[in-house]
Specification:
The complex is a heterodimer of chains A (about 80) and B (about 260). Chain A has helices spanning about 1-20, 20-40, 45-70. With about 80 residues, chain A is mostly helical. Chain A has one domain (about 1-70). The longest helix of chain A has 25 residues, at about 45-70. The radius of gyration of chain A is 13 Å and the shape is flat. The relative contact order of chain B is 0.14. Chain B has one domain (about 50-120, about 130-260). In chain B, helix 4 packs antiparallel against helix 8 (about 190-215), helix 7 runs parallel beside helix 9 (about 235-260) and helix 8 packs antiparallel against helix 9. Chain B has helices at about 1-30, 35-50, 55-60, 65-85, 100-105, 135-155, 165-180, 190-215, 235-260. By secondary structure, chain B is mainly α. The chains are: A mainly alpha (about 80), B mainly alpha (about 260). The interface of A and B includes residues 45, 58, 65, 66 and 70 of A.
């Protein structure tokens, strides 16, 4: 189970790095946080899981989406 | 173009090398894990601090001085973020910039009149039945998330959770409330003066709690309630509440200040 989650985390992280549409990258990062929270819960660290879910999937996503709304959505690099 | 890809490969190789330098010793190490602290915690942790959740026993009991510094770092981060954003010329929502912090609000009746933060509402175009999805979902979910955050914060001595974790969830709830705010519905928790007053008062209470052990006869950072009741987890509960309020209002303040920037 942990291996499957880790592979998914790796795939989504690479996608978040490579995505040209930054909104898709942010959603991938949010999914990474959610999978990490699930993994922490399975590894018997529920308090870390709560923090990861609240900060990673909640607050950082909100801040990043706010940044995109105030700048632009496409990566020009 | 060719030099560009070459530089990219060199950078990737350097990053991998650095990661290997950090991770390899962890895998190759042969020294057994230190067991003395673990065994001490297992036998005396609950009795010494009163917290069944041993993580709380460590960071609010045995290592409380570190926690005091961590909360101070958080407050410094909030001040630094707002200060840098203001100096860089960002237009923050009213009340969240440095001038708003300097003046605050003078009277109690003045608070509801000053609009602090509103997401520019997209008017439904000609179709009246279309709802604003974000507004509705976050507005309904906000109070539920807040209640869960308070639960995690208050039961930190008993079940997994505690001040920092509960505070993070409370911050999510505050951000949700701010995002789901409509014209006619207002919440005190999304206003800047309320947020930073709660934060300052909580830190003051935290500092008072650390010193109060001196007067109760249990020493600096000691449990002042030890002579009053048998329930020694009361001290940890109070500390959890203080830290939860500091973290929740602090992170919520930064998020509202950054996301709620008015787009011209």
């Amino acid at each position: 189970m942990t291996v499957i989650l880790l592979v998914l985390v790796l795939i989504l992280s690479v996608y978040a790095l490579a995505a040209r549409d930054l909104l898709h990258g942010i959603i991938a990062l949010s999914a990474v946080s959610l999978l990490c929270a699930l993994m922490f819960y399975l590894l018997h660290a529920p308090d870390v899981a709560i923090t990861e879910a609240a900060v990673g999937a909640g607050i950082t996503t909100v801040v990043f989406i706010g940044v995109i709304r105030n700048t632009e959505r496409k990566d020009r690099g | 173009m060719r030099t560009h890809t070459l530089r990219y490969h060199v950078q990737a190789a350097a990053a991998l090398l650095a990661a290997a330098a950090v991770l390899l010793p962890v895998f190759l190490i042969d020294v057994p894990w230190p067991a003395a602290a673990r065994d001490y915690l297992e036998h005396y942790g609950v009795g010494d601090s009163g917290a069944i959740n041993l993580v709380s026993a460590v960071y609010l009991g045995f290592r409380f001085f570190d926690t005091l510094g961590e909360t101070l770092v958080l407050i410094a981060a909030v001040c630094g973020t707002i200060g840098m954003l203001t100096r860089a010329g960002a237009i923050l929502p009213e009340g969240f910039d440095a001038s708003g912090m300097a003046h605050g609000f003078t009277g109690e009746g003045e608070a509801p009149d000053t609009p602090t933060f509103t997401i520019p509402v997209e008017k439904p175009k000609s179709h009246t039945l279309r709802t604003h999805l974000l507004e509705v979902v976050t507005g309904v979910l906000g109070p539920v998330v807040l209640v869960f955050g308070f639960y995690v914060m208050l039961y930190g001595h008993y079940s997994p959770g505690g001040g920092f974790q509960g505070g993070a969830v409370i911050a999510s709830g505050i951000v949700f409330l701010a995002l789901g705010k409509r014209e006619e519905v207002t919440s005190m928790l999304t206003q800047a003066p309320v947020l930073y007053r709660i934060e300052s008062a909580s830190y003051l209470l935290l500092v008072l709690m650390t010193v109060s052990g001196l007067f109760a006869g249990s020493g600096f950072l000691g449990n002042p309630f030890a002579r009053l009741f048998d329930e020694s987890a009361a001290f940890i509960m109070v500390l959890d509440i203080c830290i939860g309020m500091i973290v929740g209002t602090g992170i919520g303040f930064i998020c509202i200040a950054m996301v709620g920037r008015k787009v011209s």
